[in-house]
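Good morning C.,

I know you're traveling, so I'll keep this short. The sequence:
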Amino acid sequence: VNYTYPELRQRHVNDYKQFFDRTRFILKGARYDTQRNTEQQLLDYTKKQEQNPYLEMLYFQFGRYLLISCSRTPGVPANLQGLWAPARLSPWRGNYTTNINLEENYWPAEVTNLAECHEPFVEMVKDVSVTGAETAKKMYGARGWALHHNTDIWRTTGAVDNGTVGVWPTCNAWFCSHLWERYLFSGDKTYLAEVYPIMKGAAEFFQDFLVKDPNTGYMVVCPSNSPENHPGIGSYTKSDGNTASIALFGGVAMDNEMVYDLLKNTALAARALGKDADFADALDALKAQITPWKIGKYGQVQEWQEDWDKENSSHRHLSHLWGAYPGNQVSPYENATLYQAVHKSLVGRGDAARGWSMGWKEAMWARMLDGDHAMKILKNQLVLLDPNVTIASSDGGSYANMFDAHPPFQIDGNFGATAAIAEMLVQSHAGFLHVLPALPTEWKAGGEVKGLCARGGFVVTDMKWVGGKIEKLAVKSTVGGNLRLRTATPLTNADGTALSVAEGNNTNSLMQPYGMP
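The tokens, ready to paste straight into the viewer:
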């Protein structure tokens, strides 16, 4: 078909707007600036400490724009640069690093109303579950499937790079958390039946792979590592004569949290589909034997089985806090002690970061219900950096076009920040829809949000606040089911009648508290 330029452009606009226009985010005082380009706005935001709610609002929507623009091709999810890096400039060869980066790309997909953009990632999970079955069998003599910290367009699933980072056989659990979350947002049992065999295969892998720790009696993943980190307890000489830090252990906190999550969710999926009852029971029994969260001598979450953590560390990964975010295991309403331990660990990690780590910290602080701390790191992310900055720089920031400045460029930081802003405004992981759970002080003057999504198939179609208090809230259900709300603002129905106070268990199976022991 031959199109004129105006016809082709209009086709593009129509296609794009059907996704982008679903969500609206406006802050009081936000003004579209016709005088300064983005580079100058970023510079003034940093150097002059200028308040610019438009820039913050724009950064949120820029992440959605990027996801729409780079995750529409079936089976081709966004890689570390999305689509915007020639091969000669990409130090990661356009591959998919799966110990945080690929997953973070998709944190905004469901909550910011871009579920279709999640589909290329889901297709990749289906692919690696096939190639990963060979890895599970040949590397580990196990059923199911496995994936380590990296894959590519050929869907490699074995351990690559060096041993201290490559021996990490638990990515299958993280990938499956995306499959389950997608179901919680949609309630689509046809979809769940389609992905359940993938979740079941990953669970079967751990039925075969987990071993008993002789020191604790708990079942652990071994060997594995806490991604790209080590406790500093020793080193060894490699065959090439170079030294490396000891990094491989059993019972790493991240593995414990992710495998527990996989076993729990797979059992729930089986029961939701009315199948594999004995298998679901076996998964419940196995998950009860996994090493629980451990709190160390500083009151922090232990990253390893032993209490080896430093009280303060600037390491970029928050792997041992996976269960707090993107996982849903930590809630102040269920386990205040664990919640405080996560808080202590976050304080110990500090605020300095770049790229994807900034987005992760922002989302984590939102889960800690501390919008001001999340905002502090977001401001660091909006620092203008020179395009020639190198990987040696420890500072985070953005380039003039608002690309995430994780040299040379990693798109995951953009996506992480967009997801984090959504977490400041709406949370739905703890058994209820929590509106304005972590609103920064600077945003309390007023604002409006439309189109953010929640677990249970709910959409916040309209939310307005003034002075930090909700003025209007409209929520649409796409699948039916009970809705529980949490808000600091007393609410009434539109006709003035009172809302009932929630009691007992929520009847909505898609919005349950996690119940982490």
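Safe travels,
E.
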